[in-house]
Specification:
Helices cover 83% and strands 0% of the residues. The chain is mainly alpha-helical.
């Protein structure tokens, strides 16, 4: 009897959640994000391959980066990029990792740095929320992300972690609206999934 009750309650909650997502148009947003994500990674790989074939030796450039700069320099630059608005696409760094001595270890380190960068962005958002004038200004700039975060919570953090949506900005927004830090840490772990997927594609393209 108890098991049946728990099962029925779970089904009821899932039904209500599904209805909520339909009302808030989450499914069309998810479809659009997935479609754009596929286009972005496909276009990125094709662009790099096209550049290498017709204009420059991209493999040579990556090898020169490996030879000219220590991993610590690249990792430090990547942390800055992932903390402040994702200045350089992570795919560039994944391509760089493909030329390292231990590509999969470097990929894991990059994913961890990106995760840490998101946490730093979260706390920057928390600090900025204490200054009303700055908080209002940033909220106006990233209004759409804040609205979606308030509607979908952790699911939107997941999308920011795995899709082309700006992970650092969504992390900043999470801190700005004081979204649960524990929940943020949990959902942001999906950042590792993005690096794994992109690594499988990019490593195959450049090895």
């Amino acid at each position: 009897m108890t098991e049946n009750t728990l099962y029925n309650n779970a089904l009821k909650r899932l039904s209500l959640l599904n209805r909520y997502y339909k009302i808030t148009r989450f499914y069309p947003f998810l479809k659009s994000t997935a479609y754009k994500g596929g286009i972005v990674i496909g276009a990125f790989v094709l662009l790099l391959i096209g550049l290498e074939v017709f204009f420059l030796d991209f493999n040579s450039i990556l090898n020169n980066l490996v030879a000219s700069y220590s991993p610590m320099v690249i990792f430090a630059f990547f942390l800055a990029s992932e903390t402040f608005l994702g200045i350089v696409p992570p795919e560039i760094f994944i391509a760089w990792a493909s030329k390292s001595v231990n590509p999969w270890l470097f990929l894991f380190i990059l994913a961890t740095i990106s995760y840490i960068g998101g946490i730093i962005s979260y706390f920057i958002g928390r600090r900025l929320s204490l200054v009303p004038s700055i908080k209002n200004h940033i909220e106006n700039k990233i209004h759409k992300h804040i609205v979606n975060l308030r509607k979908w919570g952790g699911v939107f953090v997941v999308l920011g972690a795995v899709s082309p949506l700006p992970h650092s900005i969504i992390s900043l927004a999470s801190g700005l609206i004081k979204y649960s830090f524990r929940q943020y840490l949990l959902w942001a772990l999906f950042r590792y999934a993005r690096f794994l997927i992109y690594g499988l594609i990019i490593f195959k393209a450049f090895n």
